[in-house]
Amino acid sequence: MRVDHYQKGLCGRLIGYYRLQLYNKTKNNQYRQRQIISYKSALIQKSCALCDKKCKERQSICSSRTINDIEAGLPVKNDCYYIDLADKVGHRFPESRKLMHGLPQYQKEFLHVLDHPDMTSLHALHQRLAHTNSQLVNVLYYDEMFQVMLMILDILIDGHYPDQEFIDMLTFLEPYLNKADQQLALFLLYRYHEDDSLDKEKAKGYLRRLKPVNLLFKLTIQSKKMTAYSMVIALANMQKGQVFLQPNWIDWFKITSYIELKQWKKALSCIEQCFDQRLTPVCVYTLYGKMGTIAYACEDYETAAFFYKHVLKYMPDVLGFNLIFLVDSILKTHPEEIDRLISLADTETMERPLTQKIMTYYRYKYQKHAAYTALEEYIIHELKPLFTSQNRYYQLIQNDMVAYCTHTRDYQCLFEFLLVIP
Asked: What is the pLDDT of residue 219?
């Protein structure tokens, strides 16, 4: 298969990225540029049987200038260089047309299914993508792009988020992707960093650059900012423009409108009718979280706790930072229930480091009754890096820090907490 310049450029950049990751992890000199090109592997010796005489006689893979070009994304004609370098960083260079010609078609189908995200179609697509990807494990570029689609589906189906290692790789690769690939990468990065995320500013940056190519992207973005009135207007305009809305998106508009109007019973009634048929569980528990947040903002802490507890019990990773609001709501209404609430949460079912760290903090505080100094240290070392601004979540943790400092007199610790956050 002749890999095009775009794909070859990305393969080269990924080779450089994975080589540096391996060197940083192992500090093994074999992953330095000079060492990695100094000899040919057994794999390349076999491939070189089809090369010209000059290539076969060369002892090293390529020159230092050539590997610099490859890792900078500049396409080099000889595929042997890529095959050997990919092998040395534990990956494969794409060579089989049969396995890889279907990526654009899968992307097209993926966007179509996202416009009609019922559980049956999401699971079916996930199964097909996973089957195809099993034949593309560690194949440069293709494995990464299939993983992006699978991870978006994981978020929508189970609320499972990718690990930091994959996000770091995708953050590196995203600026070099073409429009079709980039939109999917941006959407995954945006969903990873959105709202209750590790970095709100990053989420805003990805949101600004995301150019919606289908209805799901558009509604995901718009629903963050729309009032109930503007949602009704948007729905009417879409129907006037003969934009066909599937029942699941009409349900989403309707429920979100009820939530904005604080009509909890109507919202819950709609959710019960749609659950697991037209709206996915992740979608439903995201709506529960939204109701909790609006109720909390209105100082209706009983209602906020009611909705948040549903999310904590069935899909805790959806809560994220809102776990702080949940604990505060319980303390303001039924403080005697705080121990039972902490026991309800199972950190082993939580996959997002954000949710795990916040729950671990409250477990130390309310169940293990950790010393004030230990709680201060946990906040500084584990929770502080999660905050990027002095938002309402931050203020509640700051209140805890102030309370601890009145006992420990360690105001330097409090100063360190305050100093880092802009």
From this structure: 52
